[in-house]
Amino acid sequence: MTTSAAAHPGAEGATAGGGSVIDRLVEANQRYAAEFTDPGMDARPVLKVAVVACMDARLDLHAALGLKLGDCHTIRNAGGVVTDDVIRSLTISQRKLGTRSIVLIHHTGCGLEAITEDFRTELEMEVGQRPSWAVEAFKDVDQDVRQSMQRVRTSPFLLHTDDVRGFVFDVKTGLLREVDPA
Ligand SMILES: [Zn+2]
């Protein structure tokens, strides 16, 4: 660990220091831990909210939503799609860790708009095994947000489905646009 390293791990090229990208992350963690003080929180999110969002690197959820450490659960995957595994996390979030509200966030320029379910066939041709999971590709981001809201609202496992809202994050402006659930 060098004292001249940039305070922000993303400020320079990932391998500018010569090590692997993961080495760089581990060094950043050492600097983080040096400044870290135990906030003394338990595991229940302060704002009682879970955010389901795409894994897209341009979406800084905490900054974009004014969230602080301990405020929320963040559940992310390719597309921010409500899969069975997302329902699993939301069920634990609500039933064991006290969250009540759910925010769903897709975004402009998502990679899932550029592929189709044919991706599964391509994989099968290449590796000889068809994935059990759906690609969950979509063409209309608003419609996919609506479908995600519907999947959450109709899940029998969730305790709280009255405060569920869906949005599209614009990666050019940083603004959220709410999607009408109708
Ligand atoms: Zn995306």
TrEMBL record:
<feature type="binding site">
    <location>
        <position position="107"/>
    </location>
    <ligand>
        <name>Zn(2+)</name>
    </ligand>
</feature>
<feature type="binding site">
    <location>
        <position position="54"/>
    </location>
    <ligand>
        <name>Zn(2+)</name>
    </ligand>
</feature>
<dbReference type="Pfam" id="PF00484">
    <property type="entry name" value="Pro_CA"/>
</dbReference>
<comment type="similarity">
    <text>Belongs to the beta-class carbonic anhydrase family.</text>
</comment>
<keyword id="KW-0479">Metal-binding</keyword>
<feature type="binding site">
    <location>
        <position position="56"/>
    </location>
    <ligand>
        <name>Zn(2+)</name>
    </ligand>
</feature>
<feature type="binding site">
    <location>
        <position position="110"/>
    </location>
    <ligand>
        <name>Zn(2+)</name>
    </ligand>
</feature>
<dbReference type="InterPro" id="IPR036874">
    <property type="entry name" value="Carbonic_anhydrase_sf"/>
</dbReference>
<keyword id="KW-0862">Zinc</keyword>
<comment type="function">
    <text>Catalyzes the reversible hydration of carbon dioxide to form bicarbonate.</text>
</comment>
<protein>
    <recommendedName>
        <fullName>carbonic anhydrase</fullName>
        <ecNumber>4.2.1.1</ecNumber>
    </recommendedName>
</protein>
<dbReference type="GO" id="GO:0004089">
    <property type="term" value="F:carbonate dehydratase activity"/>
</dbReference>
<dbReference type="GO" id="GO:0008270">
    <property type="term" value="F:zinc ion binding"/>
</dbReference>
<dbReference type="InterPro" id="IPR001765">
    <property type="entry name" value="Carbonic_anhydrase"/>
</dbReference>
